[in-house]
Each structure stands twice: as structure tokens, then as C-alpha cells.
Design goal:
Elements (H helix, E strand, L loop, with lengths): L1 H20 L1 H36 L7 E4 L10 H5 L6 H10 L3 E10 L2 E5 L2 E11 L3 H4 L4 E4 L4 H6 L3 E4 L1 H8 L8 E4 L2 E9 L14 E5 H8 L6 E9 L5 H16 L10 E4 H44 L1 H9 L4 H37 L8 H27 L3 H8 L1
Parallel strand pairs: 4-9, 6-8
Antiparallel strand pairs: 1-10, 1-11, 2-10, 3-4, 5-8, 6-9, 7-8
Subcellular location: Cell membrane
GO molecular function: transmembrane transporter activity
Main location: membrane
């Protein structure tokens, strides 16, 4: 055991000596490993960070929440021209499903629409996300009220002109003054402020309830009807806890097909989107990004491996005389083999650690300058180090074998 510790120590000394005596050659040779490890770990860290931020954004939402409307969250086999002809979901379909579906925890009718400007006296806040919905929406997504209240079932059904403001909207309109009971203007109408939400921050998708307002969907239906091009209706369904989601999805599909009078040979003219399926879609994208990262980085690693092999062959040639003396004094082939193999591994690890260090530095810079948490995980650090070791072993094995097989007499004579 002591012999191998001494061998490792000597190999480390030879590796450092190679760096010291042949700086340019060694740096250029290690550059491939550094760039390769940097590329792989940077891609993996970026993908992991993005995935973690997406998961954190969805943590507050039930992954079994269903979005029922004419669009699909992910890829679909339905042709574009057919999807363009799909009808929007209707309020009466929402009421039908609400009354006739089993195992429904909560169900709401929502409009997705473009951003608007909102005014109070001389104050205007632009690019506000308007989210018309029924009152059940507040039980599907998590909401915390800073002051006031959310609109109730009566206000929702009658379309009362009341509104709930996101935290930043309230701050922008009222500048710290009391907003409750005040009237703001939106869509050319007056709405009474009944509540303000707590500050929540922005999620990975760029959405934030801090810059959103919530009002009864039936109020918008009174103003614009059900066929306005600026509003996209959707039905959100949250099954009861413990419900088999696939059975529930099948029942929901059959109910809506029956209500719409679709024949057995006709395709669904709507999409049943599940958040858990959306996260699976995200996982697939992340996996493809990882593969692309590995392919791109593989070329750099290949160049780096050849670079280290070149250093080791040169090192064998320069130390031929020393190898002959070691063998003449009784050093076994295995000792010489491990000596050069360790040296190759150490050189590769130096390149790999530099690559990992660069990723960490860039991660710190990005995390501090952007509203995005860039994380370099321990698993990726271990992966990068392990890859460096493997590259060192693969690129150093042939030079090490050639060194171990040298004849001691010929080696000493060649060195002289």
C-alpha cells in the first residue's frame, strides 16, 4: 500500500513537472479536456437548474390539474388545419361537466387573454396579466391574500364588477395608499377593488400573480360575449384526491364527446392537458438537451484525450533512460505502467477541475446578475471528476504500456 502511495506521489510530481517545464505544450493539450468537461458540466448544470426552477414553479400547483381547451400543451398527431377548426370550450360545457362529472374536486371556467393597461386616477400600470375566472379558480391555484378578500360565488355568477389585484399592481396604482373600495378602470369599465394578493415572485415561465388582476369571468362575458378573438376560454379541473387520473381523464373525454355529439369515428375536437404530462414533456426536452450537450462536448474530450496521450508519449521518450535505470534496479513492469497511468490521470483531472471551476464561477455570476438560480450540483461535480479520470485512463494506457515494455538495457543505451 505504501508503495502505491509513493508511486502516486511521484506521478503527481512528474505531472506538475510536465506542466512547469512544458507550459505551452501542456496547456494546449489540457485545453481539450478543460473545454470538454466545461461544456458537459455547463450543459448539465444549466438543464438541471432550469428543471429545478420549473419544478419549483409548479410545486404550489396540483400536478393532476387538467386544462381542457382547444390547444395542446405538447406535440400532437392532429394536423394543424384540423386544430384550427376546433371550437372553443363553452360556459355551458363547464356547467354540464360540473354537474355530471364524478370525483371532481374543483372545476373553474377561465379566460386567457392578452395583457392590458389598468388605471386609477392619474396612475397607470401597463402590461398587466388579466385573469378572468370563476371563483373556484382560487381553490385550484394557491393564492394568499394580503388584504381584503377574493370574490365569492354570487359575485362570480352575476358578473359583479369587482377585482382582486396582484401585489405589484396595487403598489403601482396606489403608491402605498389604501386600495380597498377604490375604483380602477379596465376595458373602459370601472371595477371596485376588493382584495390584494401577497407578493409571490416570478416563476420560470415568466408568469407572476404580482402583476396580474383577477375578476369574474361572467363580467367579461357580459361585455364581450363568448366568441371574442381576444379571449381564449379554458376549463380547469382538479380531481378529488386519490382519484385515478387516467380513468378520470377518460370519463371527462367521454362526457364532453357526448355533449358535443361526436360520432365514434370522429377525433376529439379538444385537448385534455394534464400538468403531470407537461412535466413529462419538459423532462423529454431536458433529456434531448443533455444528449446534444454530450455530443458537442464529446469532440472536445476526444481532442483532449489525444492531447494527453501525446504528452505521455513525449514523456516516455524523454524519460527512457530513467525507465531503464528503474528496471535495472528491479522495478517491475506493473510499477512503470501505474507510474505513467497515474500521471495521465492527474493531468486529465487538472484539466477537468479547471473546467468545473470555470462552470462554478460562471454559475455564481449568472445567479447574482439574473433572476435565475443557476446550480452546480454535487452530482455534476462528481460526474466531471469521474469523466476526467476515465479520459486520463484511456489516453494514458497506450503510453504506459509502451513504457512498461521497454527493455532496460536498450532503454539505458537509448537514453545515453
Amino acid at each position: 500500500m505504501l508503495l502505491y502511495i509513493r508511486l502516486l506521489k511521484e506521478s503527481f510530481a512528474f505531472a506538475i513537472n510536465a506542466l512547469r517545464n512544458n507550459k505551452l505544450r501542456t496547456v494546449l493539450s489540457l485545453l481539450g479536456v478543460t473545454v470538454g468537461i466545461f461544456s458537459i458540466i455547463a450543459v448539465l448544470a444549466a438543464v438541471d437548474s432550469l428543471k429545478r426552477n420549473i419544478v419549483d414553479s409548479l410545486d404550489g400547483m396540483d400536478k393532476n390539474t387538467i386544462y381542457l381547451f382547444k390547444y395542446s400543451f405538447g406535440p400532437t398527431e392532429v394536423e394543424q388545419w384540423k386544430r384550427d377548426q376546433f371550437p372553443h370550450v363553452k360556459y355551458d360545457e363547464f356547467q354540464y361537466l360540473k354537474k355530471n362529472m364524478d370525483n371532481v374536486g374543483k372545476i373553474s371556467f377561465n379566460f386567457f387573454t392578452r395583457n392590458q393597461s389598468i388605471k386609477y386616477d392619474d396612475n397607470t400600470v401597463n402590461s398587466i396579466r388579466v385573469k378572468p375566472s370563476t371563483e373556484e379558480f382560487f381553490e385550484i391555484e394557491p393564492f394568499k391574500v394580503e388584504k381584503g378578500r377574493l370574490f365569492n360565488e354570487v359575485e362570480s355568477y352575476s358578473g359583479t364588477p369587482v377585482i382582486v389585484l396582484g401585489y405589484d399592481v396595487a403598489e403601482g396604482l396606489f403608491k402605498g395608499n389604501e386600495p380597498l373600495g377604490k375604483q380602477i378602470r379596465l376595458y373602459g369599465q370601472r371595477y371596485t377593488v376588493i382584495g390584494v394578493l401577497k407578493k409571490m415572485g416570478q416563476n420560470t415561465f415568466g408568469d407572476s400573480n404580482d402583476v396580474a388582476v383577477f375578476l369574474p369571468v361572467n363580467n367579461i362575458r357580459k361585455l364581450y360575449g363568448d366568441n371574442s378573438a381576444i379571449f381564449t376560454p379554458a376549463i380547469l379541473v382538479k380531481p378529488e384526491e386519490g382519484t385515478d387520473i387516467e380513468e378520470f381523464k377518460a370519463e371527462l373525454t367521454n362526457k364532453l364527446r357526448t355533449y358535443r355529439g361526436l360520432k365514434p369515428d370522429e377525433i376529439n375536437n379538444f385537448f385534455v392537458n394534464i400538468l403531470s404530462g407537461f412535466t413529462d414533456f419538459i423532462d423529454d426536452i431536458m433529456g434531448q438537451l443533455n444528449i446534444v450537450g454530450w455530443l458537442i462536448s464529446g469532440f472536445s474530450l476526444l481532442v483532449g484525450g489525444f492531447g494527453i496521450a501525446n504528452i505521455m508519449f513525449v514523456s516516455v521518450k524523454e524519460r527512457t533512460n530513467l525507465i531503464g535505470i528503474q528496471k535495472a534496479l528491479g522495478a517491475k513492469n506493473k510499477f512503470i505502467l501505474f507510474q505513467f497511468l497515474f500521471e495521465a490521470v492527474i493531468l486529465a483531472m487538472i484539466g477537468g477541475l479547471i473546467g468545473i471551476l470555470l462552470v462554478w464561477i460562471i454559475a455564481q455570476i449568472l445567479s447574482s446578475s439574473l433572476d435565475f438560480k443557476f446550480v452546480l450540483s454535487l452530482n455534476n461535480i462528481i460526474l466531471g471528476s469521474s469523466l476526467s479520470i476515465v479520459i486520463g485512463l484511456l489516453s494514458g494506457i497506450l503510453p504506459a504500456i509502451s513504457a512498461s515494455k521497454l527493455d532496460p538495457v536498450e532503454a539505458i543505451r537509448t537514453g545515453m
